[in-house]
Design brief:
single chain; alpha+beta; Arc Repressor Mutant, subunit A; Beta-Lactamase; 2 domains; six-stranded antiparallel sheet; three-stranded antiparallel sheet; 9 helices; 9 strands; globular
């Protein structure tokens, strides 16, 4: 697992020496374990370097929470993208970070800081704040105690500021990312509620700050999130 976690978006390919440095394992152990992972399809050769193998992607598609939620959400995400002409994100909370389960990019959209399978601190994103606002208090406490890292000059980095923001989100049912995760990027997000009443995901519309009016998008996002919540509560093919 240490070898697999050594790879990230900035380092998709690594040599044995770099793998050993990043994991703290002896070079001989790294070489032996990497060879076994290649044999299993979890890593693959890229010339003299290594990269994550296709078998990991295949396994990822079998994760029940991702598959069930994504299958239920896609029709609503497609409708939301069509209605708003902006990119749509679906994310879940993993610890104190959000993991993006699905992203539907708008036509002609420029690159975004998020990616499917990528992680960002929950307090610095619209979807993350939407989830935190409806999570148990201990979840918010864990996020605060881990430190509110600054991703941009607009990121909320004080416990009091985050607490006030989450209180407003609970009242309005919508959260906003006002260039908090990345300069130039804004979004409106709403929570997706599971059948048992717990928050299960966050849904958002995302775009460039100069083009997207997040307040105007809020009703559409909230309506889509409520519709997805109702769909998850009703038996259907692949969920329920």
């Amino acid at each position: 697992m240490s070898l697999l976690w050594a790879f990230d978006p900035d380092r998709p390919e690594l040599g044995i020496s770099e793998l050993a440095r990043r994991t703290g394992l002896p070079k001989s152990t790294t070489h032996r374990l990497a060879g076994e992972l290649v044999r299993l399809g979890l890593l693959e050769q890229a010339g003299p370097r290594l990269r994550l193998g296709l078998r990991l992607f295949e396994l990822g598609q079998l994760v029940p929470r991702q598959r069930t939620l994504r299958d239920a959400a896609l029709p609503f995400m497609e409708d939301l993208r069509e209605a708003t002409q902006n990119s749509v994100h679906l994310a879940v909370l993993e610890g104190i970070e959000v993991v993006y389960v699905e992203i539907l990019l708008s036509r002609g959209s420029r690159s975004l800081p998020s990616r499917v399978g990528g992680r960002l601190p929950a307090h610095a994103t619209g979807v993350g704040k939407a989830i935190l606002a409806f999570s148990p208090p201990e979840v918010v406490t864990a996020r605060i105690e881990a430190g509110l890292v600054r991703l941009s000059p607009h990121t909320i980095v004080t416990p009091g500021g985050l607490t006030r923001e989450l209180r407003t989100i609970r009242s309005e049912g919508v959260s906003y990312d006002r260039q908090e995760s990345d300069l130039g990027i804004v979004c409106a997000a709403a929570p997706v509620i599971a059948p048992d009443g717990t928050v299960t995901a966050g849904l958002s519309v995302t775009g460039r700050a100069e083009r997207l009016d997040v307040k105007r998008m809020a009703p559409a996002v909230r309506t889509a999130a409520l519709a997805l919540s109702r769909a998850l509560a009703s038996p259907g093919p692949g969920w329920g």
